[in-house]
Amino acid sequence: MAETQQVDPSDQSDESGEDGRAGEKRAPDRRAARAERRAARLARSIASFARRHGGAEGRLAYLGQAGTRIVLVGEDGGWGDLVAPTYDVARVAAEKAGLTLHESFDGDFAAKVRTGPYEWKRMAGIQLGG
After folding, report:
1. 32-70 as b/e: b if 16+ CB within 10 A
2. For a Cys staple, 61 with which of 25, 28, 33, 69, CB 3.0–4.6 Å?
3. 85-96: per-residue pLDDT in tens?
4. Contact assessment for residue 56 and residue 75, using Cβ atoms and an 8 Å cutoff
5. What is the 8-class DSSP label of residue 93?
6. What is the DSSP string of 22-90?
């Protein structure tokens, strides 16, 4: 049988010093690591979209507490979006994926979007109350 030994937490020294605030120091590190993982996951999704559509450009749109929307427009006119928990995570993901970002969704950028019959029917239905 393996020997076990009780450890007294007051005898342990932590990385934050004598006042026992190691958890407080690790919390920002954990949040930063989580944000980095989310950004990496979003960057992979952006890169996958860009491969399927011959390249992509995008725009970040702040959604309030819900996060930030990453609007993607492919070179073939296909479009989609992703939602990041924060603006900073969205910006880092776009940078990692090499996404060209636009300040606004107008002009040549908006003209690249190609909509299909589904979108037209849905938009007409909203206007007509359906």
Report:
1. eeebeebbeebbeebbebbeebeebbbbbeeeeeebbbb
2. 69
3. 999 999 999 999
4. yes
5. H
6. HHHHHHHHHHHHHHHHHHHHHHHHHHHHHHHTTSEEEEEEE-GGG-EEEEEEETTS-EEEEEESSHHHH
SS3 call for 99: coil
**Whole-model pTM?**
0.71
Q: Which pLDDT score, from 0 to 100, does residue 117 have?
A: 83
Query: From edge to edge, which strands make up the β-sheet containing 68-74?
Result: 79-84, 68-74, 56-62, 100-101
Question: Residue 50 corresponds to which tokens in the numbers above?
Answer: 């860009």
